Amino acid sequence: MATDNNSGETTPEAAYETVLEKSQRILDLEKTDFLLRWDSDVMMPSGGAPARASQRSSIAAAQHRYRTDEELGEALDVLADADLDRDRAAIVRELRREYEVETSVPRELTDRLASVTSGAHEDWKQAKEAADWSAFAPTMERVVDTWMDWADSVDPDGDPFETLWSERSGYHAQRYIDLETVETVFDDLRAALIPLIEDIRESETDLATDAFTAHGPYDTDTQRALCRETLSLLGLDWDRARLDLAPHPFSYGTQHDVRITTRFSEETPMDGLQGVLHEFGHTAYTHGLPQEHYGDPIGEPRGLGVHESQSRFFENHVGRTEAFWEYFLPTVQDHFPQLEAITPREAYECVNQVYEDNLIRVSADELTYHMHIILRTEIEQALVAGEIDVADVPTVWNDKMEAYLGIRPESDAEGPLQDPHWAGQIPAFITYTVGSVLAAQLDAAMRADLDVDALVREGNFDPIHEWLTERIHRHGQRYETDELIERATGEPLTADYFVEYAREKYGELYDL
């Protein structure tokens, strides 16, 4: 680290350059791990799993070394009282928080966590294929126990679940939204959605629920071509993205390179389409981050909750609107002429139906979706609190599914093995509901400035991108999450807009 030529002391400017250099290394390693994760699901031969687990473990260990580097700590000390501009202060704030958390965790525990989670994804894939929770349970026990040890190291006097929620580092961090806010959102959703779902199930209104399934099967190569055209219509920059298939849709990347995945069903094109609409929102956010800040926190997204708000915005507040289907249906019909007789209204009704028997979270409708999230979060909290054992998860899962949605999975693959998230994360699902309610809040704020339906009906998505970039994307981690949300929408995070949106939309659809 450079020092002042006269005093021999480190200058604030030199200290800041050290912070930037360490940040670059940390984020380069994280993005490399993203590529390995993408490759595991998209390209890697099945025999590559043992080496891949070792590779990802090594990357995690290297990230930890940079996050806890003594030179970084010294630089942060120098900058503790320095007069920094807004952006530099934000960058130092984010690196300091990670440094303080990571240095509280013993090296042995960090290595153990990396080892456990790096191989867990492959264990999950094999267990899901066999539809056998017992094959994954030993791995899940190690994941839970290791994260519990991590929480105890970070805050031995705190609530371990809250520590796991709020103190994580890197891409999975969800800082600055406290657990009390989450619980308020969940309470509001329970109070509003459970009776709304019951009213819908009692409604005698018949929607065009089979508008797509009645005309299958759908060739997967044609679906891929349709998905590519959909992404182009939405404005995807193909020079910085690619589309592939994976068992579970996801997207990872940087401002310069995003890997999008989806999956197809021959019964309906909507699985693949809704997958790319969702992942496009993530990609739009990632592409909208300032390129000049690649490698520092201002070039990074503001947590998974905000990230999910962007995907849910495009999936629901664009892709599930009647205006979108008035614009988009002809494109679908060009690819699948067997759909030439269906109307935009029928397509709109079909994609917004509330399912009575949906077991799979990623295929769930907007309303029952949140019961999937609440169910998973309650199981996570019970595991962390020691109220249930990992072996109990399928039974607890099935009982909660029956209590909340009136259905029971027929296999573990339809139950607790349907998602890969527990192969590495606890908690893993809260951000999906946070993102959904924030998407509705952003939609309401946007509609005060733009005629969103008219823009969508015309296929003019540029003003929508510009609005989101101005208020969310370009800021990265410049602001803490609560400040970012308030700047973008004028008020703190609230479920009120989602509840209002859901009641109005589904009240009209089901004639409530």
Index terms:
single chain; about 500 residues; mainly alpha; Neurolysin, domain 3; 3-stranded mixed sheet
Explain how this protein is built.
The chain has 512 residues and is mainly α. It has two domains: 12-103; 179-509, Neurolysin, domain 3 (Orthogonal Bundle), CATH 1.10.1370. 61% of the residues lie in helices and 3% in strands. It is built from 20 helices and three strands. The protein has helices at 12-42, 49-67, 70-78, 86-102, 107-130, 133-154, 160-166, 179-202, 220-234, 270-288, 303-318, 322-335, 344-351, 369-384, 393-405, 430-447, 452-458, 462-471, 481-489, 496-509, and strands spanning 241-245, 251-254, 257-262. The longest helix is centred in the first third of the chain and has 31 residues, at 12-42. The mean pLDDT is 94.
Write the layout of secondary structure elements.
Blueprint: H1 12-42, H2 49-67, H3 70-78, H4 86-102, H5 107-130, H6 133-154, H7 160-166, H8 179-202, H9 220-234, E1 241-245, E2 251-254, E3 257-262, H10 270-288, H11 303-318, H12 322-335, H13 344-351, H14 369-384, H15 393-405, H16 430-447, H17 452-458, H18 462-471, H19 481-489, H20 496-509
Parallel strand pairs: 1-3
Antiparallel strand pairs: 2-3
Helix pairs in contact: 1-2, 1-3, 1-4, 2-5, 5-6, 6-7, 8-20, 9-10, 10-11, 11-16, 12-13, 12-17, 14-15, 16-20
Count of discrete alpha- or pi-helical segments spanning 4 or more residues = 20
Strand composition percent: under 5%
What structural class is derived from the secondary structure elements? mainly alpha
Strand order of the largest sheet: 1-3-2
Inertia-based shape: globular
Second-tier CATH architecture of the largest domain: Orthogonal Bundle
Rg from C-alpha positions? 23 Å
Poorly predicted sequence stretches spanning 5 or more consecutive residues:
none
